[in-house]
Protein backbone atom coordinates (compact mmCIF):
# COMPACT_ATOMS: atom_id res chain seq x y z
CA UNK A 1 0.00 0.00 0.00
CA UNK A 2 1.22 3.47 -0.82
CA UNK A 3 2.00 6.03 1.87
CA UNK A 4 0.33 9.41 1.48
CA UNK A 5 1.62 12.33 3.46
CA UNK A 6 -0.78 15.13 4.31
CA UNK A 7 0.63 18.59 4.96
CA UNK A 8 -1.68 20.77 7.04
CA UNK A 9 -0.10 24.22 7.28
CA UNK A 10 -0.49 27.93 7.83
CA UNK A 11 2.14 30.65 8.10
CA UNK A 12 3.31 29.50 11.55
CA UNK A 13 2.53 25.78 11.89
CA UNK A 14 3.05 22.87 9.52
CA UNK A 15 1.79 19.44 10.56
CA UNK A 16 2.80 16.44 8.50
CA UNK A 17 0.67 13.34 8.96
CA UNK A 18 0.83 10.04 7.11
CA UNK A 19 -1.87 7.75 5.81
CA UNK A 20 -0.81 4.20 5.02
CA UNK A 21 -1.22 0.61 6.15
CA UNK A 22 -2.97 1.52 9.40
CA UNK A 23 -5.64 3.45 7.45
CA UNK A 24 -5.45 6.22 10.06
CA UNK A 25 -3.57 9.50 10.08
CA UNK A 26 -0.35 9.14 12.04
CA UNK A 27 1.82 12.14 13.06
CA UNK A 28 5.13 12.38 11.20
CA UNK A 29 6.49 15.80 12.07
CA UNK A 30 5.43 19.25 13.22
CA UNK A 31 7.34 22.30 12.08
CA UNK A 32 6.64 25.55 13.86
CA UNK A 33 7.71 29.11 13.50
CA UNK A 34 7.06 30.64 16.94
CA UNK A 35 8.23 34.06 15.79
CA UNK A 36 5.48 34.23 13.17
CA UNK A 37 2.65 34.56 15.65
CA UNK A 38 4.49 36.83 18.08
CA UNK A 39 5.98 39.17 15.50
CA UNK A 40 2.85 39.17 13.37
CA UNK A 41 0.65 40.12 16.27
CA UNK A 42 3.04 42.88 17.32
CA UNK A 43 3.27 44.20 13.77
CA UNK A 44 -0.49 44.20 13.33
CA UNK A 45 -1.13 45.98 16.64
CA UNK A 46 1.54 48.51 15.84
CA UNK A 47 0.34 49.11 12.30
CA UNK A 48 -3.33 49.48 13.16
CA UNK A 49 -2.66 51.76 16.11
CA UNK A 50 -0.54 54.41 14.40
CA UNK A 51 -1.98 57.66 13.16
CA UNK A 52 -0.34 60.47 11.27
CA UNK A 53 0.68 63.47 13.32
CA UNK A 54 -2.23 65.90 13.40
CA UNK A 55 -4.43 63.47 11.46
CA UNK A 56 -4.26 65.62 8.34
CA UNK A 57 -5.65 64.38 5.03
CA UNK A 58 -2.37 64.55 3.14
CA UNK A 59 -0.46 62.23 5.44
CA UNK A 60 0.34 58.61 4.45
CA UNK A 61 2.28 57.53 7.53
CA UNK A 62 -0.31 55.00 8.80
CA UNK A 63 -0.62 53.39 5.37
CA UNK A 64 3.12 53.16 4.91
CA UNK A 65 3.54 51.54 8.33
CA UNK A 66 0.81 48.97 7.63
CA UNK A 67 2.34 48.21 4.23
CA UNK A 68 5.80 47.70 5.73
CA UNK A 69 4.37 45.33 8.34
CA UNK A 70 2.53 43.35 5.66
CA UNK A 71 5.71 43.11 3.55
CA UNK A 72 7.68 41.84 6.54
CA UNK A 73 4.99 39.27 7.41
CA UNK A 74 4.92 38.10 3.77
CA UNK A 75 8.72 37.70 3.71
CA UNK A 76 8.56 35.75 6.96
CA UNK A 77 5.87 33.47 5.47
CA UNK A 78 8.01 32.89 2.36
CA UNK A 79 10.95 31.77 4.50
CA UNK A 80 8.72 29.40 6.48
CA UNK A 81 7.19 27.99 3.26
CA UNK A 82 10.70 27.30 1.93
CA UNK A 83 11.63 25.54 5.18
CA UNK A 84 8.53 23.31 5.01
CA UNK A 85 9.05 22.63 1.29
CA UNK A 86 12.66 21.58 1.92
CA UNK A 87 11.51 19.03 4.53
CA UNK A 88 9.04 17.59 2.01
CA UNK A 89 11.65 17.49 -0.74
CA UNK A 90 14.12 15.63 1.47
CA UNK A 91 11.44 13.15 2.56
CA UNK A 92 10.54 12.45 -1.07
CA UNK A 93 14.23 11.91 -1.91
CA UNK A 94 14.35 9.35 0.91
CA UNK A 95 11.21 7.63 -0.50
CA UNK A 96 9.29 8.22 2.73
CA UNK A 97 6.08 9.04 0.83
CA UNK A 98 4.42 8.05 -2.41
CA UNK A 99 1.84 10.83 -2.63
CA UNK A 100 1.31 14.24 -1.04
CA UNK A 101 -1.82 16.17 -0.14
CA UNK A 102 -1.41 19.84 0.78
CA UNK A 103 -4.01 21.75 2.80
CA UNK A 104 -3.27 25.42 3.52
CA UNK A 105 -4.96 28.81 3.38
CA UNK A 106 -4.83 30.32 -0.13
CA UNK A 107 -1.92 32.73 0.37
CA UNK A 108 0.31 30.19 2.09
CA UNK A 109 -0.66 27.48 -0.42
CA UNK A 110 0.67 29.77 -3.17
CA UNK A 111 3.94 30.25 -1.31
CA UNK A 112 4.28 26.48 -0.84
CA UNK A 113 3.68 25.87 -4.55
CA UNK A 114 6.52 28.24 -5.42
CA UNK A 115 8.90 26.75 -2.85
CA UNK A 116 8.21 23.04 -3.37
CA UNK A 117 11.11 21.18 -5.03
CA UNK A 118 10.21 19.46 -8.29
CA UNK A 119 10.55 15.95 -6.85
CA UNK A 120 7.91 16.72 -4.21
CA UNK A 121 5.72 18.77 -6.56
CA UNK A 122 5.53 15.77 -8.90
CA UNK A 123 3.78 13.63 -6.28
CA UNK A 124 1.19 16.20 -5.15
CA UNK A 125 -2.11 14.39 -5.45
CA UNK A 126 -4.42 17.14 -4.16
CA UNK A 127 -4.25 20.73 -2.97
CA UNK A 128 -6.98 22.31 -0.86
CA UNK A 129 -7.06 26.00 0.00
CA UNK A 130 -8.44 25.49 3.51
CA UNK A 131 -7.22 26.16 7.04
CA UNK A 132 -7.23 22.83 8.94
CA UNK A 133 -4.27 23.55 11.25
CA UNK A 134 -6.30 23.38 14.45
CA UNK A 135 -8.38 20.34 13.46
CA UNK A 136 -7.80 16.95 15.06
CA UNK A 137 -6.45 14.10 12.94
CA UNK A 138 -9.90 12.48 13.07
CA UNK A 139 -11.53 15.66 11.73
CA UNK A 140 -8.92 15.90 8.99
CA UNK A 141 -9.41 12.25 8.09
CA UNK A 142 -13.16 12.77 7.79
CA UNK A 143 -12.74 15.85 5.55
CA UNK A 144 -10.11 14.16 3.34
CA UNK A 145 -11.72 10.72 3.16
CA UNK A 146 -12.31 10.94 -0.61
CA UNK A 147 -8.62 11.73 -1.24
CA UNK A 148 -7.13 9.07 1.06
CA UNK A 149 -7.17 5.79 -0.85
What's the number of domains?
A: 1
Q: Helicity level, as a percent range? A: 40-55%
Strand content: 15-25%
Going by helix content, strand content and strand pairing, the class is alpha/beta
Q: What kind of sheet is the major sheet?
A: 5 strands, mixed
Total beta-strand segments: 5
Protein name: Host attachment protein
Pfam families: Host_attach
Biased composition (Low complexity): 59-69
InterPro entries: Host_attachment_protein (IPR019291)
In short:
With 149 residues, this protein is an alpha/beta fold. It has five helices and five strands.
Structure description:
With 149 residues, the chain is of the alpha/beta class. It has one domain: eRF1 domain 2 (Nucleotidyltransferase, domain 5), CATH 3.30.420. Strands 3-2-1-4-5 form a five-stranded mixed β-sheet, with helices on both faces. A hairpin with a 3-residue loop joins strand 1 and strand 2. Helix 2 packs across helix 3. The longest helix has 33 residues. InterPro entries: Host_attachment_protein. This is Host attachment protein.
Amino acid sequence: MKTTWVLIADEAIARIIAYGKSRTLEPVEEITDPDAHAEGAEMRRDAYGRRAAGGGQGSTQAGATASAANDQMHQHAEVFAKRVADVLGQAQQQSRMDALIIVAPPRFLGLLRKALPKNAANIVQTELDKDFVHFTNDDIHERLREYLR
